[in-house]
Write a structure and sequence with these properties.
Shape: globular
Number of helices: 19
Structural class: alpha+beta
Oligomer: single chain
Number of strands: 30
């Protein structure tokens, strides 16, 4: 009998046990409560006051041992674990076999006396054991920290059962959110709620999720930001408002991005972006003290000092500090294009966008300690006030920790005419195919025409802040149920199968629609060809490159002791998640090439052709039995 048959047989036995209990009138699922129980931590932390007393505990069986007339169980509740000692002479001849027949994973209630064993372990000697819920699945016996992160995220309930420390992260998450509210409330801010379903996308540059309202027969969008509604409230007379809530952006997923995420956005009338800098610094310092008891924390082995004030630097000076390039001396678009080509940076449509591209390429990853970068170009800041001393820039800043943006803030633009012009520029970008550009919001413009006082606005990524304060490597570690791609039966149940769609596994090629490029007629000499080192590689990790519309970052096993990083522009064809564990083919002896500031060490091979007028790409995948590092001849 193979392992799968063994598992299926055990599952069958559990269902038979439940059926037997129901037939005997002992259906555990008819029990509706088990009141007045005591948590295991309370017993252990105050043993002297509980010693010898009879009380009730409740929880899940995590382990069983013993035989004959005495048996032991480890019972886990919300606060921890406690040992249950079952003695046949105390439980009784009739009830003891039922106790012995319980399975790991079952949820039980136990009434009995608290005592300490000869080995010194605080325990409960059971008098009655009540089965409250029959577990029909099998818990892993040795989870080893649940290294399979995919299972951890998909089945968070198992993760929390087998790794109780995971619950601490989410308890701290709740504490952090509460402390954010306390911080804001003490400063006179009013918490409000604004619509999640929007008829216009605005407040940020991001691709939205689109849905349809049947009754109104209109398309609507899940909000990408709460900014424009909150500023309407400032127009209406509320001087200090904030909202903590979910935002939704139809973008990629990696260690710091999830399609739905939590932010706090706040607006303070008669303040500016320097006031928002101070709120950012003070809030993070306050949270560090409340959660960790100190301002100096350790994140993934790096010591971070969150105490205010933080380093503050202009975007242009930060670029100069890292690269030596001074955009104060590069004043024309033509000069900016020239330096872009020299430094292999993507050429953008305006000087301001090129400055921002240099920052994202060379500077962001270097901002390890908490840093505030300010004076962003006006072209990338459509909602921020211009800098009075140089109107090419804005009173905008972003806050960074460990190369990751945690906050974005402005002296909010309240010039309705200027705002209309910038919205119109965004609409032009959208019409030209930029689906992250903002829409024209006439009602918001009308609100600005009514008049908004000088206002400081700030948005902070709550999930990323929680990552730093709980030393969590991935945003998925601080989200109870992160977004996951359906697999297996899940996918079949939730996806309409359409054989005409190239987006399904059932896609059937109509070869009449294929167009293959002509074969090269020029010969390549054997010596030149043999210099290319084709190697089998296995995907250890794969993630989207932040702010890139095309690139996926692969961390590969190439058969050596060192991991190999290769970037590939195939995000439009594959999700990062589905490529983990795949066996691929790469050229490994190409010179390193930097893309988005990341050194790519080779090239993954794909097959490309034209299908029905569009490019079709298939990443070349090999048999998983071929070992990493195998050379292709």
């Amino acid at each position: 009998m193979n392992q799968n048959q063994d598992v299926n047989e055990m599952l069958k036995v559990r269902r038979e046990k439940l059926s037997k209990l129901k037939n005997e009138g002992k259906d555990p699922h008819k029990i509706v409560n088990y009141r007045n129980y005591v948590h295991s931590s309370e017993i252990k932390n105050d043993f002297e006051n509980h010693d010898g007393k009879t009380l009730k505990v409740a929880g899940r069986i995590l382990a069983k041992r013993g035989h004959g007339k005495i048996s032991f169980m480890d019972l886990q509740d919300e606060s921890g674990k406690i040992q249950i000692v079952n003695r046949k002479n105390i439980i009784g001849e009739e009830a003891y076999p039922d106790v012995k027949d319980l399975d790991i994973g079952d949820i039980i209630g136990v009434e009995g006396k608290v005592f300490k064993t000869e080995a010194g372990e605080i325990s409960v000697e059971s008098k009655t054991v009540t089965l409250l819920t029959k577990s029909l699945q099998i818990l892993p016996e040795k989870w080893h920290g649940l290294k399979d992160t995919d299972i951890r995220y998909r089945q968070r309930y198992l993760d929390m059962i087998m790794n109780p420390q995971v619950k601490e992260v989410f308890a701290n998450r709740s504490k952090i959110v509460s402390e954010i509210r306390n911080f804001m409330d003490k400063r006179g801010f009013l918490e409000v709620e604004t619509p999640i379903l929007n008829t216009i996308v605005g407040g940020a540059n991001a691709r939205p999720f689109i849905t349809h309202h049947n009754s109104l027969d209109i398309d609507m969008y899940l909000r990408i930001a709460s900014e424009l509604y909150l500023k309407r409230l400032v127009v209406g007379g509320f001087e200090k408002v904030y909202e903590i809530g979910r935002m939704f952006r139809n973008e990629g997923m990696d260690r710091s991005h999830n399609p739905e995420f939590t932010t706090i956005e706040l607006y303070s009338a008669y303040d500016d972006y320097e006031d928002m800098m101070k709120i950012t610094e003070d809030l993070l310092e306050d949270l560090a003290i409340k959660v960790q008891g100190k301002t100096k924390i350790t994140y993934q082995g790096t010591e971070l000092e969150l105490k205010a004030p933080w380093k503050r630097i202009t975007m242009i000076d930060s670029i100069k500090e890292v690269t030596g390039i001074d955009f104060n001396e590069i004043n024309t678009y033509e000069e900016a294009v020239k330096i872009s080509k020299e430094k292999n940076v993507e050429v953008k449509e305006t000087r301001g966008e090129i400055i921002n591209e240099f920052f994202e390429t060379f500077v962001e990853d270097t901002l390890v300690q908490p840093t505030i970068v300010y004076e962003y170009p006006v072209e990338v800041s459509p909602l921020a006030k211009r800098e009075p001393n140089d109107e090419r820039y804005t009173q905008r800043f972003e806050a960074f920790i460990m190369g990751s943006e945690i906050g974005n803030a402005f002296s909010e633009l309240n010039d309705a005419i200027d705002q209309r012009g910038r919205f119109e520029a965004q609409v032009e970008k959208r019409n030209a195919g930029d689906d992250e550009a903002q829409m024209l919001d006439n009602d918001f413009l009308n609100a600005l025409e009514v008049g908004m006082p000088p206002t400081g606005g700030l948005g902070l990524g709550v999930d990323r802040i929680i990552m730093f304060l709980t030393d969590s490597d991935s945003i998925r570690d601080v989200l109870l149920f992160p977004t996951m791609k359906p697999i297996g039966d899940e996918k079949n149940q939730n996806t309409e199968q359409n054989i005409d769609s190239k987006e399904t596994n059932n896609f059937k090629i109509d070869f009449e629609k294929l167009k293959i490029e002509p074969l090269f007629e020029d010969m390549v000499d054997f010596d030149t060809f043999s210099k290319s080192d084709f190697r089998v590689v296995k995907v250890k990790k794969c993630e989207e490159v932040p702010k890139s519309k095309k690139l996926l970052k692969f961390i590969l096993d190439d058969g050596t002791e060192n991991e190999r990083i290769i970037l590939s522009g195939i995000k439009n064809y594959y999700s990062a998640e589905e490529l983990v564990g795949k066996t691929l083919l790469a050229i490994t002896n190409l010179p390193e090439r930097k893309m988005m500031g990341i050194a790519s060490q080779g090239m993954l091979l794909s097959a490309v052709c034209e299908y029905d007028g569009e490019e079709m790409l298939n990443l070349i995948m090999l048999d998983s039995n071929i070992p990493a590092g195998a050379k292709l001849y």
